[in-house]
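Worked example 2:
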Amino acid sequence: MPARKSTGGRKKPAAKKATKRANSRKKRNAAASVRAGKELDPAAQRFVRDLLIRGEAAKPTPEGDLPPGATHRIVEDSEEGELPTVEREVFSMS
């Protein structure tokens, strides 16, 4: 029997998976629709509702700061039965 040739331990390149960039675009588009006050899809509605329940969305204080634990600012209050418009607050660790 002839000896098998070695490939030098190299493997075939794996097929490319969906990139993080493509996934982040979806998130950004959902956030943009939240800010614009457009009709929200069920996932975006659930996201905003959950922010409110957990207390992560809050109105700013008179000084303009968010209370501790809040990650989203309520930009525009809603009418009865509608969700408010929220915007992600940018934080820095320094």
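The chain is about 30% helix and 10% strand. Confidence is low (pLDDT under 50) at residues 23-27.
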